[in-house]
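2024-03-11 09:14:02 DEBUG pipeline.ingest accepted 1 chain
2024-03-11 09:14:02 DEBUG pipeline.ingest length=81
2024-03-11 09:14:03 DEBUG pipeline.predict start
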Amino acid sequence: MKEKLFTKNFTLLVLGQVSSLFGNYILRLALSMYVLELTGSAAVFAGLLSAATIPTILRILLLAAPGFLTTADTRPTRRAT
């Protein structure tokens, strides 16, 4: 039985996630630009933008990186006889 991967609900879910991530990144940039406009300090702008990006980097390093090597990848494959 073959089922389509891109059903209507799955496509809507993916589009919702993509638009949400895009909005999050735009918000970070907009808040940093607002602080730059208020203070005129490039150091404060860079610091705020860096501080907003650090959780994303940590999430990638701590959660996604261990997932690249799973137990299925480390066990030898059995051959059917």
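2024-03-11 09:14:41 DEBUG pipeline.report DSSP finds three helices and no strands in the chain.
2024-03-11 09:14:41 DEBUG pipeline.predict end
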